[in-house]
Amino acid sequence: MELRLLDAVSLADLPSGSGIEWMDGHYYICSDDSPVLYKVDAGGTTVDQINIFNWAFDGRIPKVFKPDFEAMVNVGCEIWVFGSGSLAPRDVFVKVDLTTKAIRTFSLTIFYDALCRHAAIQKEQLNIEGAAVHGEQLLLLNRGNNCIYRFALADFTSCVEQDGVFPNIVVQRYNLPFIDGCVAGFSGATVFGDDLIFCASLEKTKDWINDGEILGSFIGLIHLCENSEEIADCVQLMQGNEVFLGKIEGLCVTEKSEKQVMLSAICDNDDGRSTLLTIEMSL
């Protein structure tokens, strides 16, 4: 697998981009500290905003209050947005109907607590940063321990929306690269056929709450049908001959052929801005 960074566009009016989907010629981008789902055209201009979180003040939401929307996936005519679960206010799940712009919000506290028990982790190890749908399965990527949780989409919906039974779940843990003693952590994902294309960023921080020095980002492949804990490939993104020192938080496929995939990725700059990347991936 080879990566080529083709373009980088600054999105000055879109803070802390954390998830991205491409639908009908537009991007939908969520932010980890904004109450808004942004609709952005192909050139990077925001053309619409949908409020998905009740916040009465202007500007970025302080860490202590923010829902920390870090994972997003398109399901039918809806966008599903997940809070990271890393603190109590972040146990939130939002469904956005793009046809009617209707918003439905659910608590994930019971689900996330059960997920921690099932995966034998403490709540402080939970940091959901990516979501993807493969067939009838929902995949959630946990940055806290680089695990992917796989379960039936219908079972998740029943559990969260109807107080149903916790779904049967497969937990798979992956070994990601290290740089300067820091391990890359899952930060987003999308599905391409039977492959999961994931991004993983490196940040010098001791926890999932505070920001740290950004050391770069990887993009990798996992073959989902093999049901193994092997990563098929994982490449650090470069900018010319230098490491691209950006924190990729989400990615999506915009064009594809048998041997080439065009990706768009969103970077959180940790300074109130975001960057939209165009990346060519050769398989």
Would you summarize the structure shown here?
This protein is mostly beta strands and 283 residues long. The chain has helices at 109-119, 153-162, and strands at 2-11, 17-23, 26-31, 36-40, 46-51, 69-75, 78-83, 92-97, 103-107, 128-134, 137-142, 147-152, 170-173, 178-179, 182-183, 185-192, 195-204, 213-223, 233-236, 238-239, 242-243, 248-256, 260-268, 274-282.
How much strand? over 45%
Order of helices and strands: EEEEEEEEEHEEEHEEEEEEEEEEEE
Low-confidence stretches: none
- Strand order, main sheet: write it out: 1-24-23-22
- Domain count: 1
Number of helical segments? 2
- Topology, number of strands: 24
Structural class: mainly beta
CATH hierarchy class name: Mainly Beta
CATH topology: Neuraminidase
Overall radius of gyration: 17 Å
The shape is globular
- Largest β-sheet summary: 4 strands, antiparallel
Terminal residue distance: 5 Å
The overall pLDDT, averaged over residues, is: 94
SSE order and pairing:
Elements lengths: L1 E10 L5 E7 L2 E6 L4 E5 L5 E6 L17 E7 L2 E6 L8 E6 L5 E5 L1 H11 L8 E7 L2 E6 L4 E6 H10 L7 E4 L4 E2 L2 E2 L1 E8 L2 E10 L8 E11 L9 E4 L1 E2 L2 E2 L4 E9 L3 E9 L5 E9 L1
Antiparallel strand pairs: 1-24, 2-3, 3-4, 4-5, 6-7, 7-8, 8-9, 10-11, 11-12, 12-13, 14-15, 16-17, 17-18, 18-19, 20-21, 22-23, 23-24
Notes on the structure:
It is a single chain. The chain has helices at 109-119, 153-162, and strands spanning 2-11, 17-23, 26-31, 36-40, 46-51, 69-75, 78-83, 92-97, 103-107, 128-134, 137-142, 147-152, 170-173, 178-179, 182-183, 185-192, 195-204, 213-223, 233-236, 238-239, 242-243, 248-256, 260-268, 274-282. The longest helix is centred in the middle third of the chain and has 11 residues, at 109-119. The chain is built from two helices and 24 strands. It starts with a strand and ends with a strand. The protein has a four-stranded antiparallel sheet, with no helix packed on it. A four-stranded antiparallel sheet has the order 2-3-4-5, with no helix packed on it. β11 (137-142) and β12 (147-152) form a beta hairpin. It is globular and about 50 Å long. It has one domain: 6 Propeller (Neuraminidase). By secondary structure, the protein is mainly beta.
